[in-house]
Every structure is written in structure tokens, then in C-alpha cells.
Amino acid sequence: MEKIILGNWKMNPQEKEEAVGLAKEIVEEVDKGIIGIAPPLVFLSDVSDVVSDSSVMLGAQDVFWEDKGSHTGEVSIDELKSLGVEFVIIGHSERRGLGESDKEVNKKVKQVLENDLKAVLCVGEPENMRNKGVDVAKRFVSGELEKGLEGVSMNDDSLIIAYEPIWAISTQSEGPASVDDVLEMISFIKRYLKINDLDGGTPVLYGGSINRDNAGEFLRTKEIDGVLVGRASLEADEFLKIIKSA
Ligand code: PGA
Q1: Which uninterrupted H or E stretch holds 121?
Q2: Which of 48, 55, 133, 192 has the fewest CB atoms nearer than 10 Å to its CB?
Q3: In the prediction, which pLDDT does 58 show?
């Protein structure tokens, strides 16, 4: 399977010119592969102009589950589509940390899939669960999958799972999870999808402190279908090196 490399810019950068500049540097160097960037909502339109004629996919970091109407501050799937958005990150641990529930995550996943965009569903255990052992971590992750995918019967490549153990995300951690730990959990997730008839070859990515130095060992591992990159996607040079290591 071709590796998928997605950049999650989170709430960065602060200036439109910087966002456009970063997107331009990436677009200039990328002409193949499954590469995507998810800028902040306010810069989607400008970044869309930059990536529209390129192979780089545009992503959003969130979406609302209702089609339209009186939902102050939210953004609809059609609004995202009108800007050329192709994938939406859903259930990132930073959003769950602000109170987003599995039920809300599930409604968002369904909204994205029903509208033929790619849904990147993030799952991953917190540190205190991992400390209780790998079986507890697996139970936590399968619980997120079960609730996040309730009523989903997709059998195509619109669904992407990102395994992001919270304790390995760069703001919480000195480094990524070990390749062995990631491999074990990703194999578990793939088995879970298969048993539950959700596997149409669903790619499962890893995210958490990926950078130019460690990306290669994850991307060379067959079962790891790609990476979701936070901090290291904010510098074109760094992100491009990660892409090259695939
Ligand atoms: P990080 O973020 O690469 O900065 O650890 C990953 C993520 O939160 O998606």
C-alpha cells in the first residue's frame, strides 16, 4: 500500500502569509504520493488556492455533524467541500481533551463518510492506561473504535484510522512510541476492523512525535500505512524530509 503522510498544523501558524508560504514550499516539492495538509480553518481558503492544482490534499481539523443552520462557530461539510477539502481529522485527542465525546466523534465520522470525503479517525490511549499494560491500552482503543464507528459500514478507502497514543504526542513527550509498540497496536486495530466487517483495506497511520530522523523506521514497516505529523509538519524542510523517507 502506498504510504499516506498527513500534516496537522493544529493552531499554527498565526499569520496567513506564513500559512500560504508553507503550503507553497510543500506544493513545489511534492508531485506524487498521498500527501495532505490540514491548516487552521481560517486559512483553508488561501491554502486551497495554493494546493488546488497540485497532488497535495487539503484537510480540515474538524467538522460539524449538522448540514447547516443555527450553529454558531461551527463549520459544515459543504462549506469544507466548497473549498476543496478532501479529508477531515476527527476525534483528535486535543479535541477530546476539550470535551468532545465518542458520540460526537461518531456523528462527525458519519457526516464525513456520507459526504464522500475521507475521515481520519484518531484513537489512542492516555499514559495512565498504557501504564496499566498493553491489554488495557488495547481495550481503551477498541472502545474508541467501537463507539466512533457505530453504524458505519464503509468498505472503501474513505476511512482512515490514526493511532496516536496521547503520551507520545510531541507536546506531552520526548519521543515517539517504539515501532514495536505501534506495530502491535496497529495490527490489533486491523484485526478489530476485520472482525467487525469494517475492513476494506482501511489504512492505519501512526502519529506522535514523528520527525525527519524517526519517520523512516515507521514508514519502512509494512503494516504502518503512514504517519500523521503535528509539529514537524510546520517546517517545510522537515515535512519534506519525512515525505522523502517514505
Ligand atoms: P506531533 O503531533 O507530531 O507534534 O506529536 C501529532 C498529532 O497530534 O497529530
Answers
A1: strand 118-123
A2: 133
A3: 98
Q: Reply yes or no on whether 92 is catalytic.
A: yes
pLDDT at 112: 97
Task: Tell me the residue type at 52.
Answer: S
Contact 106, 148 (CB under 8 A): yes
Tell me how far apart the alpha carbons of residues 96 and 104 are, in angstroms, rounded to a whole number. 10
Residues of the chain short of pLDDT 50, as ranges, are none
In angstroms, the CA 208 to CA 14 distance is: 22
Sequence-ordered alpha helix ranges (H) in 40-101? 44-51, 77-82, 93-96
For 35, the enclosing helix (H) or strand (E) is strand 34-38
pLDDT digits (tens, 9 = 90+) for 3-45: 999 999 999 999 999 999 999 999 999 999 999 999 999 999 9
Q: Which residue puts its alpha carbon closest to atom 2 of ligand 1? A: 230
Residue of 88, 34, 100, 96 whose CA lies nearest to 61: 88
- Ligand 1, atom 9: closest residue by C-alpha: 230
pLDDT value of residue 97:
97
Burial class (CB in 10 A: 0-12, 13-18, 19+), 77: buried
For the record, the C-alpha cell of 223 comes out as 503494516
pLDDT, residue 83, reads 98
Exposed, middle or buried, 240 (CB in 10 Å: 0-12/13-18/19+)? middle
Q: Is 71 a catalytic residue?
A: no
CA distances from 211 to 71, 140, 217, 234 (A): 37, 26, 11, 11
